[in-house]
Amino acid sequence: MTSPGEDAAGTSPGPAPGLDPHGAAERDTAPALQRALAPLSRFVLLVERLSMAIAGICFVMIVLITAVDVAMRYVFNAPLIWAFELISDYLMVAIFFLAIGATQRFNQNIGVDILVRRLPERPRAALAAACLVLVLGYIGLVGHAGWYVFADAWSNGDVLAGAIAWPRWPALLLVPIGCGLLVLRLIVDLIGNLGAAGGALDLAAHRRVRAIPVELGPVSRGEIA
Fold first, then answer.
1. CA distance 67 to 70
2. Which of 85, 98, 102, 88 is nearest to 57 (CA)?
3. Which domain holds residue 200?
4. Residue 27 three-state SS
């Protein structure tokens, strides 16, 4: 006779088609904080992808406007009088502030870690959390001040000096928007580092979730930020 877990040949059946034999076990052993952090990380990642897409469109516009302006200047002797102001006062500002959150996600902001990298994981995470609190406070102040400058320009109808009276408020609005994007990413990083410092979350797992916010699916080395 064969046992209930064996087939007629005496071997145990394999996993059901389409099911990951390790996924359920990995999901059960996932830290609770990691599971709670995944939805927030997924939302922030979605916002960052949208902002990066808009920043990419702005970059393409810069290239196209510059090419047309050069052709009009040297071929037809009729340059675009609005090209410089649009690029320098709007598009370049948009590229910077819309990409600031994604830059933090990939750890591409300038940092000095010659000593921090030598620390064990938990003290390193605690020190990173303390730094993130300071950065959050500073970026919050910048965003708050930027909002009031934008509101003042909006209410007064301020315009830029130049051949065309461009309104100032669209460029000024990008400051609080960019700060908001960075604050969202810093909050995700802060929660993850606090969890790693307290032993409730593995720091490597946090880096995986913040880069590719899945519950606990396999992630290749190249996907880890």
1. 5
2. 98
3. 32-107+114-223
4. helix
Q: Is residue 27 part of a domain?
A: no
Residue 215: inside a domain: yes
188: in domain: yes
98's tokens:
């819309």
Q: How many CB atoms lie within 10 A of CB 144?
A: 11
pTM of the prediction?
Answer: 0.76
pLDDT of residue 196: 84
pLDDT of residue 117: 80
CB 214 within 8 A of CB 35: no
Q: Are 179 and 96 in contact (CB under 8 A)?
A: no
Tell me the average confidence (pLDDT) per consecutive run of 10 residues in the chain, 225 residues long. Answer: 50 49 45 79 94 97 96 92 92 96 87 81 89 95 97 94 88 97 94 84 61 39 33
DSSP 159: B
125 and 193 Cβ atoms separated by less than 8 Å: yes
Q: How many domains would you assign to the chain?
A: 1
Which DSSP category does 167 fall into? B
CB atoms under 10 Å from CB of 129, counted, come to 19
Close Cβ partners of 67 (under 8 Å, ≥ 6 residues apart)? none
- Cβ burial of 187 (10 Å; 0-12, 13-18, 19+) is middle
Residue 166 contacts residue 160 (beta carbons within 8 Å): yes
The token pair that represents 82 in the structure block: 């609005």
